[in-house]
Amino acid sequence: MEADRVLPEKFSNSDENMVKITIHNQHGFKTNVEVIDEIPVQFQKRDFLKSLEIPAHKKISFDYLLKPLKRGEYTFGNLNVYVSTFLKLIKRKYVFNKDQLVKVYPSFIQMKNLDFLALDQKINLHGIKRIRRIGHTMEFEQIKEYVRGDDVRTINWKATAKNNHLMVNQFQDERSQPVYSIIDSGRMMKMPFEGLSLLDYAINSSLAFSNVALKKKDKVGILSFSNKIDTLQKASSKLSQLNRIMEALYNVDTGFYDSDFSLLYSRVKKHLTHRSLLMLYTNFEHMSALQRQLPYLKAIAKNHLLVVIFFENTEMTKLTELDVSNVSESAHQTIAEEFVHDKLLMAKELQKHGIQTLLTPPKDLSINTINKYLEIKARGLL
């Protein structure tokens, strides 16, 4: 009897990943086989059992799916195969593939699924907004013949006189602009929603967003911080930049420290000398927490286009939608409504000071972040 466990080169965090098992019966008779795979401890799954009948000299394969919720190294134990004949009087145990290691990276599957947004933002799918282009950016692309629907304000009169028919200037989104994902890895980002921490939601979104920005020919970089600067990858538009970002995001982790926004401001001022688009992933649960950090956010926004991305508390939102039946439930609902209202006030407070804001449910983070980026590019704000 031979068996093999085939693992992908790496797992994608928060996505279904396929594991394939192949078993080859080299006996000259049909066998009954029970397969027990020792799945990594992170999954807390101890009931794996697959029963098969394998004809003589035949090979059978099957697969199963695993969904990791945390980045890092996962170790598979033994692949145990118990073999018996049709009488089932005795079983023989075979052991294969001891201690296989696989690394779980930020969600590259989600990144690939959202890859098309870099090519066409006019696709009408659920969750994807059409962006109204307000004016145009001033990066010249070419002169072309006028067709109905072109903006008459872009008519090139010299080219029109030379060719004896209407010609217009065509513009494109400005390219090679520096774009940074700034990830707050402080204790507030440890909060879990649907099994995944806010930090991992932010990391998955940063990877998908960086891929789209690179396809749009912008320079992308990342920065992570808590009580110190953990990671700083300077913006670049090279093809290898996405792999560097993925490796850097793999190592981002959170402790239980308060985030130092004054340190963030000093590092941004020192290292990011050109005006850049800064997508800051953070979270505030109370207005007082925002007020403490607002002076630093305003200082950063003076020299850069800052977008503060923080999270709706979806559990609180669910509480506000329940039908209450007693005083205790009514009190809980009142508190939940106050939390939801505070989030909206925070967004308005940031906007009042000229800071772009995105308040989003965790599960919609990636698509909403990319939409915000496409809107900024379309409006030529950077």
From TrEMBL:
InterPro entries: DUF58 (IPR002881). It comes from the Bacteria. Pfam families: DUF58. Residues 143-309 form the DUF58 domain. This is DUF58 domain-containing protein. It comes from Christiangramia forsetii.
